[in-house]
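Aim 2, interim progress. The first record below pairs a target sequence with its C-alpha cells.
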Amino acid sequence: MSDETGSHTDVPENLPSAQDGHHGDTIARTDPFADPGLPPHEHRRQDIDEKAARHSERVVAGLFTLSMLGTIAFIACFVIFPVDKIVYIFPFGHVSALNFSLGLTLAVALFSIGAGAVHWARTLMADEEVADDRHRIDADDELRENVRQQWITGAKESGFGRRKLIRNTMMGALTMVPLAGLVILRDLGPLPEKKLDHTMWAKGKQLINTNTNQPLRPEDVLVGSLTFAQPDGLEESQDDFQEQLAKAALMIIRLKPDDIKDKRELDWSHQGIVAFSKICTHVGCPISLYEQQTHHVLCPCHQSTFDLSDGARVLFGPAGHPLPQLRISVNSEGNLIALGDFEEPVGPAFWERS
C-alpha cells in the first residue's frame, strides 16, 4: 500500500479485513485465548407476544392446579382404600391398591410443582445472560447492595407480583403438598379414640377360664392358685379377638382374707378371690409368674414386681402404677362375674397424660 507521498506502509498479514464480519472472529484471529463475549440475546416468543405469554401463564397455573388436585386425590385414596385391598394393574401385576394410589397421586402432585416451576422459568422469567467477575467471599457493602438490587430486579422480572394467577396457584400447591405428609402420619397406627380406656368387661359378664373355656366358680379357685380368665362372649373366631384379649386378660388368685392388706381390694374380692389385669403397666407384657408364699407376681419382660395382697402395688421395677383390679362377685348360678369394667385403662400408663 502506498500513501499520497509515494511511501509504502506495511500491513500485518494477520489483521482481519473489512469483510471478516464478526467481532468474535477478529478477537480469535488476534488472540485465540481471549473472551469472545456473550452471543447476541435472542428474544423468546413470550417476550414479544403477550398472547403467548398469557398462554404460558395458564399452562403454569394449570400445572400448579394439577398439583393441588393430586394432593387432594392422595388424601382421598388414603381414606377410601383399605390397607389390605389388592388389585391387578398391568404390567405390575397384583399390587396394594392403597400403596399404588398413594404413590401415583403423590408423584403427580410433586411432578406438577416441578414442571410448573421449570416452565415458568423457561418461558416467563427473565433469561438474558450476564457476565460478572468472581468476587471475594467476604462481600463489602457495595457488593451486598448490588446483590440486593439483583434480588429485587429478579423478583420483579419473574412476574410473581404481576401474574396473580401463577402466584395464587403456586402458593396453593405449595401449601397443600405438606398435607400429604401429615396424612401419612395417620398411618402410624389406628386412632385409639376411647378403645384403650375400656375393655369387654361389664356388669354381669361371667369370668371364663381360658384353659377350659368354662365359667369359673369360686370352688374352682384354690387358695394360692393362679388362674387366667377372659370375659364371656369373647371367641377366637372374632376378627378383634387378640385385640380384645390383650386388654381384658385377667389373673384370678385366691388369698386368705386375712392376708389381704388393702381394704378396697378386700371389698372388691369374693371370699378372698381377687381379679387383676394380666397386662403389666410398664410396656404391656403379659404377667404370668406368681410366687405363692409372698403373693408377688413378676413381669418376665423387665422384672416389675407387684404385691397382689396389697392392691397389686409396685414393689420393684420400671412399672409406674399398680395393676388395675376388677370388682367381682357371683351370679344366681354360682359363677364368678364382673361388676363392671376396670376403673382405669389397663397396660402402660398413657392415660395419666390424657
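The second target in this work package is listed in the same format:
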Amino acid sequence: MSTAGRPPSSGRRAFLVRKSLIPLLIAVLVVYSAQQLLTPVLAPLSRELTLTETQLGLVIAVAATALTIASPLWGHALHRIGLRLVLLSGLGLATAGLTGFAAVAALGLDDTMPTPLVFALMLITRSIVFGAGVAALPVAALAVAGTATTTETERTRATGLVGAAQGVSMVLGPAAGGALAAASLMLPLYLAPILCLLLALWVLATVRPPAASAPAAHSGPGPRPWDARLWPLLTIGFFLYLSLGLVQVIIGFLVADRLHLGPQETAGAVGIVLFTAGVVLVAVQGAAVPALGWPVLRLLRTGSPIAIAAFALLSVSESLWLITTAFALLALGLGLAIPGFTAAPTLVVEQTQQGSISGLVNATIGATFIVGPLLGTALYEIDPAIPILTALGAVTAALVLAWASPAARRTQVTTVTAPPGTPAEPQEER
C-alpha cells in the first residue's frame, strides 16, 4: 500500500529531527567553544594591556548588547535569505571579529598601539562584530528545533540539545583555553578565529537546504515581545538567566573572600566549581530532559524550586565542597527549567514564525548578560550576600509566573502543528 502523503512515523520523524539539528548543534558547539577559549585569558590579558576591570566589563557588556540587538534581526533574516546564508553571514562576522581581536591584542602587547586605541578596537572587534555574528548560531538552531518538531515533547528535547551543545562548550572551551594559555596568552586568541573559519568552510561545503530545515517564509508582522501570549514566558526566561548571571560574575570574588585564597588558588577552586556545574548542566540538558519527555510547564515548575534551594545553600556556604554542591544543584535546577523556557514561546506562535520567535528568545538571554554582570558586581560591593539573594528572588518570580500566568498555562493546550508529510519543509535558498 502506498504511504505517499502520510505523516512519517514517530521513529522516522525523530530521525529527521536529529538529521535537521545535527549540523546546527555542531555549529553551536564549535563557535561557542571558540568563544569560551578566551575565557581564561581575558583577565590576565587585560592586565598585560593595562586595561582596567571596568574596561574589561564593558567589552563583555557591549558584546551582550550586540547579541541582544542582532538576535531578532537574524530571526527575521532566516525567513528572507534562508538558513545557509544566515549561518555563513554569522560565521563570517564571528571570524572577522575574533581575527581583529587577536590582531589588536598582539599589537597592544608589542606596545605598537596606545591603550585607548586598543580598548576602542576591542569594543569594535570582540564586542560588536563578534557579538553580532555569534548571535546567528543559537537563533538558527532554535528556529530549526521549532520547525522540525511536531509535538511539545519533541520540541522540548530539541531545544534541550541546543542548550546542551552550549553547555559542552562551557566545559571544553575554558579547559582548552587554560591549557593553551600555559604556553602563551595569545594561543587561544589565534585558535579561536581559525575554528570559526573552518566551521564556515564546513557549512559552505556541506550544509544544504535538504540537510537542515529552516523556517518557511511568512507574511505580516512577526511576534512582538509585548504580546500577551509571549511577555510572561520571556519574562520567566529573563529571570532564570538573570539569576545565573548575577552569581556567575561574582563566583571568583565569592570563593576568594569566603575561603581566603590567593589568586592562583582562587582560579583553581573556581575551575572546580564551574567544571562540576558544566558537567551537570550537560548531563541534564543533553540526557535527562530528552529522556524524561516532560512538558514545558513541568520542567519550569520542577527546575525553579531546585534552583531556589541552590541559591539558599550558596548564601550560607563557607567551604569549597558546599559552594561546588550549590552550583551543581543550580545546574540541575536551571538545566531542567531553561529548556522549558526556550520551548515555551515556540508553542504559542505559528510554525512560520519560528525564526522570529527564536530571535526574541535569544535576545532575552542576551539581555541578561548585560544586566547580570553589572548588577551582580555592584550589589556585591554593597554586601556579598545581596546578589545571591537577588538571584533567589529572580527565580522565585519566575516560579510564580510559571504557576500563575495564563500565558504559561496556555502552553498546556497549544497544539503543535507542522506541514503535512514532513517535520518541516526546507526553505529554498535565495
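DSSP finds 16 helices and no strands in the chain. This observation will shape the mutagenesis plan for the next reporting period.
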